[in-house]
Amino acid sequence: MPDRAPQPVDRQLPTDEARDLISLVRDIAQHEIAPKAAEEEGAGHFPREVFTLLSRTGLLGLPYASEHGGADQPYEVYLQVLEELAAARLTVGLGVSVHTLSSYALATYGTKEQRVEHLPAMLGGGLLGAYCLSEPSSGSDAASLRTRAVLDGDDWVITGTKAWITHGGVADFYTVMARTGEEGPRGITAFLVPADAEGVSAAAPEKKMGMKGSPTAQVHFDGVRVPDSRRIGEEGQGFAIALSALDSGRLGIAACAIGVAQAALDEAVGYATGRQQFGRPIADFQGLRFMLADMATQIEAGRALYLAAARLRDAGRPFAKQAAMAKLHCTDTAMKVTVDAVQVLGGYGYTADFPAERYMREAKVLQIVEGTNQIQRMVIARHLAGPETR
């Protein structure tokens, strides 16, 4: 059954350098990521070698300053790179987004000395990061976290457990939010913790519905000593740092969601134009054509929404509301589009012989991570109507 080859997304990019960058990413995605995606996801294999390649080619530090190993790319470009990577394999696209999120605190709030010492290795030296905010008893209510850091001489001693950590057990560094003071958001401080520090360990990875190649695990900190030089920002500033990072991270999730949705649409179009029933391609039937049209329209709307938010960020303007809207719309779109793609493929869509079922399983987690979509609605409503009354 001949499939119709998907056409590359026609992207509006601001510079020739950005166009060359997208061409590089597409080449890596086509030759190094996509061919192994199904087999390695089925086996639960984490593609560390791919992240090493991405680091070596400068793709793990795109939105950060070149003086510290980044690439000085605007978010408008960085997010489209994420979309291309996620379309090839969500484990990779989301992994790059999480690494970027993990580097944000030090890159944005670290001292000049900290940035000079740590960022080159984090952004282009082969290291991989993880972001540690959630805990077993504090997910959406992140301000109630219990992991504690106590000052002992010139060191902080960190004790506690973080949960749902992408790259838990395979990361080289953890950006950790820990309580150093009073209860609530004002008592939280951020730390950069090396993964090989004594007392850091990871539990067995969670057994998940999708993204089986991306390890998600609890990370334990058992009296881990971290020098004060690895404290990021001021004491008590950690929660503000965490929320600021998440505003940007949510745009990364939005872009990854559109990548998965685009991959599902491409699969559906290819199948529908090649599958013959009643003597003609099933793409000739109006009911199915309308499904494909709706899928494509929602994807384009999501892409426009996350890019509009990115351009606000690049211009230095407030974008938190738009980031929440983008995360909400794009991940809901990914869920609907992937479900519809399975329907287009019919019985074949329910088998692992085609990638549609994997896209559907993977899309679900995007409605949950970095703030559930219910939390996104709360964020948007607060911007519209102010804080809730108690």
Give a verbal description of the structure.
The chain has 390 residues and is of the alpha+beta class. Helix content is 51%, strand content 14%. It has 10 helices and 10 strands. It has helices spanning 16-43, 48-56, 75-88, 90-109, 112-124, 238-274, 286-314, 320-345, 356-366, 373-385, and strands spanning 129-132, 148-152, 155-166, 173-179, 188-194, 200-202, 216-227, 231-232, 276-277, 280-281. The strands form 3 sheets. The protein has a 4-stranded mixed beta sheet. A 4-stranded antiparallel beta sheet has the order 2-3-7-6, with no helix packed on it. The protein has a two-stranded antiparallel ribbon with strand order 9-10. A hairpin with a 2-residue loop joins β2 (148-152) and β3 (155-166). α6 runs antiparallel to α9. The radius of gyration is 21 Å and the shape is globular. The N and C termini lie far apart (61 Å). The model has no long low-confidence stretch (mean pLDDT 95).
